[in-house]
Structures
1.
Amino acid sequence: MDATLNPPGATAPAPTGLAAPADAPTAAAAAAAAAAPADAAAPVGPALAPSPAGSAVQHRPVVSELRLSAFGVHRGAVFGFGPVTLLTGPSGSGKSQVLAGYEALAGLGGGATLEQAFPDPRGRIPDRALPDGQGRRGFRIGCTVDGPAGPVRLDLAVQAEPTLRIVGERLSVDGRILLATALRDPGRRSVQASWLTGGAVGVTRAPLPDDRLGTALLPLRVAGSTAGQRQVLAAAEQVVVALRSAFPCDPHPERMRAPVPPGEGRLLGDCSNLADVLRRTRHECGTRHALLAAAARAGCAGPVQGLEVRAPAQGPVTAVLDRGPAAAATELGRLGSGELRFLALALVLLTGPGVLAMDPAAELLSARQALTVLADGFDRGLDGRQSAELLRLALLSCGRGHVRLAAAVGRETAEAARATPGVTVVDLTA
């Protein structure tokens, strides 16, 4: 065990492999604030005010770093993320685990429970991790989010056995602890939380549930009436906005071939409703639809003049490639698996949260958010031409600051991208 996450005075040690914040609030400070009531609820929003003109501060909150320890094959691992980040390495090196950790944090930031974020928590524990004297094992996961509030660190210690629960959480900026939680009574489904208040009180203490991200709950508990509270709100909102702006995407061609019933036109993570989304983009966003048609010409075999949709008044929606006046149109269901994956990923890179089945932070304008696409097996089933075109689209979209890409790719795609400006290649080769 590296250290204990519980602050002095805790009744139970942390599970094996869970590290503690070294600068957690002292017992004296916690005791001084024990009688302080929780702050009144406050709406989310004003804490993310824009920085002064000319500032180099990142205006759109983005995850710049992910930390994993005792998480699958990763122990004390740190991964940096840029606008376009490609993870590469041999099978079993942990590429998918990095994206799964990011996706789990994104779910927690969006209000998911720990069980929803980690449906198989035992599968995340290294095989050789030994339980402590009480049979407990777990892992650590954290991230850094850049934005108007500066680099904000979020660190979680998760107990996976015998009961799934968060045993410690820390939110900090420049080494200053803004929120710290610890498990004090294993018999209760709560953790003791303390957050910066400022003024005469200094610190506020209150219990929080042990199956949800405390950082995501702070905007409902902190009033923002003191400078300390406003700093806590700004940091918490920055983290939540960045995490909620993630879209995990893994197109399944076998689910994309059949015509689909008309719906609201929001793309699912498996892209099974691609035809319905194309129906929407064709009528609502001609510019992006034209860019997608141009991408289809680069990534699909044969002549492509455009992307069309057959949508009868009553009946399913079918998308087709327009082959021009000299040839019959080709239904997307007749395309190869690589072509379907290519079209789906191109659509994701060229569109925005309003067309994707995700729940971004509604309290912040979309122009102040950066969508992060998480794509495992980004180049799976694609040839070099298609992979190069998707990378070009990613750089085009990510260069504007509204979209970011974190993807696991094969060795050939990674090698081709190493010399490309704006691409971060993370090699997990042991």
Note: Residues 1-56 have pLDDT under 50 and may be disordered.
2.
Amino acid sequence: MSTHRDITPVFCTIVPPHLLDALSQHSNASLADVARRTLERDTLERTRRSLTVAAGPQATAAPGAEADPPDQPERSIHDAAHGTALPGRKVRGEGQQPVKDASVNRAYSGLGATFELYLKAYGRSSIDGRGLPLVATVHYDREYNNAFWNGDQMVFGDGDGEIFLDFTLPLDVIGHELTHGVTQHTANLTYADQPGALNESLSDVFGSLIKQYALGQTASEADWLIGAGLLAPGVSGKALRSMKAPGTAYDDDVLGKDPQPGSMKDYVRTEDDNGGVHINSGIPNRAFYLLAETLGGNAWERAGQIWYDVLTGGDLASDADFAAFARLTASAAQTRYGGGAEQEAVLKAWSQVGVSTG
């Protein structure tokens, strides 16, 4: 575990701004209004987070953090009751029985699945490595089309029912957002341009691994989709993103076409979305998929271990670009496994997406 940098919490959403922007301009006034309200709420929460950070560092360690890190999660699920005050009323705590609200139970299970993957696969106790309590809020706002990590906790909207369903439905969405917390406590990657795209990609990678671990799937059995089951039945799409084939997750009259590239030759240069962090993340996403598919077996083992070693090893600079990250993964593969099949597969995967490893 590495905590070698000052922590800079960021506000990260699962639905990217470019997708909500497209919705906000739709001719259907009700769909456009929901998207605009979601964008406005995201902007407000992002501003609130930046003001909190500017006010000074917050304590992030769990009580008794100097003791051995716990091997069990400490979860609390809250209900915002369609308001925006966080965290809201606590409705289920650690060890308590399921309640009637399915969103509460899914959030509780998703936090647990995330804790389990990090503990069992990598020996990490919670997202900070020291047993940090995991907090989530469901039923945030009305028809809120997003889920986010705000630097302290998870928040889930219910969706509008026409484009997006309940954001607690996909396990990888929960894992994705909580992994922003892991990155926050380790490499603390700057949330812009290529470092920001790496930040998003790492959340997609470990979000997918959390789902694969929970389902007992090998790399070849996994769907490699992020947010499968989130899009409403009338939407022409499978998910928010595809790690296996970036740019193919959706192609819809309302949402438009998935803009993610899968190679550096199609890298998108834009000032929107912090320099395209949700778009260009498709490139390192595909590199990880190619590595996992080549190595075979359980992706959270060798492929995931290499990525985890780089994320937490202390050598990943907060402003690292794709090439710097790629070089570190090649080095990590050699350090952990020697200069054999694992390192060769890493080098080949990055070459296939057009990223130089020097």
Note: Strands lie at 12-13, 75-79, 89-93, 134-138, 147-149, 154-156, 225-226, 241-242, 251-252, 256-257.
